[in-house]
């Protein structure tokens, strides 16, 4: 099946609807003009078989394509400061390979939260690059010495003017934060990311610090809301997370060190949490060989062992959870490993929901992606087996994912 010149009906399949975690064997699904036109269980109506190409999936599971809500497709190294020293053309070439590999793992949409810009998103949309639909936020906003400031201690002066291919933009004071937020939104950013606490990959801050003043955060939230967009915040500790939620941040990245008070605030504000547990496992295993500076390596253990308990607490407390990975450099190949980690504390249906319908809701694309509803884009996975009974089929896509369709067109594998 190439680009969709005629309707196609996929038959003899088990539909996996992530909204209720239900499986419907003996089903069919009609793709027309790149979207899901109809679906049902039982025989395909004659009016459809007369005009559509029929493909028998031999009992395989058909489910929505996956969504990763926290990627850095331009992060060619765990030394994020070094990215700015590369040619933008080289970084774009690296991103092309990164995006293609993500599509091969079954991710048909990804949200980049620091690094990718409108040019990469447009290149994917126009077919110049093969990869998942790219939802971008541009550069993350950071105070001097914050998580988006990747200068070593001995370097002074700001890095570049915002045009270099780095992940962060350093600004200070509400005027600079407001201007920086407007600049990202001017390029079409779908969200604005701001640093609420210290981080692992930044060389000069503490994990337990709070970052960005309340006036700075209010300015960013106000600009995002004015543009009908939202603010997502990098944060680990309950103090930093709670502060951001109270000031209108709609989504928190990581959250490894939250407590019960944080859970209550997430629920009260209807905010999302995007844990990224696989990145800490891989940073612990192979961060150094992938460029993680020594001062950053020392911080990994601080967040590594608390992440799973934070996920359990959030899940049991009813927090809206989206799937994310945050892998850097050569560690990106472990993207699907997040499924196995989350499966230790969440039912498989909930993990799948976090990578489909819940992630779509975070991105503002509910009903359009991450679902089998009629009218949704035909971004689909064909899986040999039942992922709800065996989540490893998604954790090991080379074994479980038979084919990836995007917009109704076959991108990987075989039908």
Walk me through what this model shows.
- The chain is 33% helix and 24% strand.
- It is an alpha/beta fold and 415 residues long.
- The protein has 2 domains: 8-64 and 371-413, Urease, subunit C, domain 1 (Roll), CATH 2.30.40; 66-335, Alpha-Beta Barrel (TIM Barrel).
- The strands form 4 sheets. Strands 1, 2, 3, 4, 5, 16, 17 and 18 form an 8-stranded mixed beta sheet that branches. A 5-stranded parallel beta sheet has the order 11-12-13-14-15. A 3-stranded parallel beta sheet has the order 6-7-8.
- α6 links the parallel β11 (191-195) and β12 (230-237).
- α5 (173-186) packs parallel to α6 (214-226) and α7 runs parallel beside α8.
- It starts with 7 loop residues before the first strand and ends with a strand.
Short description:
This protein is of the alpha/beta class and 415 residues long. Helix content is 33%, strand content 24%.
**CATH architecture identity of the largest domain:** Alpha-Beta Barrel
The CATH homology group name of the largest domain: Metal-dependent hydrolases
Q: Total domains, how many?
A: 2
> What global shape is seen?
globular
CATH third-tier fold name of the largest domain:
TIM Barrel
What is the tally of beta strands? 18
How many distinct helices?
A: 17
Task: List low-confidence stretches.
Answer: none
The biggest beta sheet, please? 8 strands, mixed
Cα-atom radius of gyration? 21 Å
**Alpha-carbon distance between the two ends:** 9 Å
What share of the residues does DSSP label as strand, in percent?
15-25%
Mean pLDDT: 92
Q: Tell me, what is the CATH class of the largest domain?
A: Alpha Beta
Secondary-structure-based class equals alpha/beta
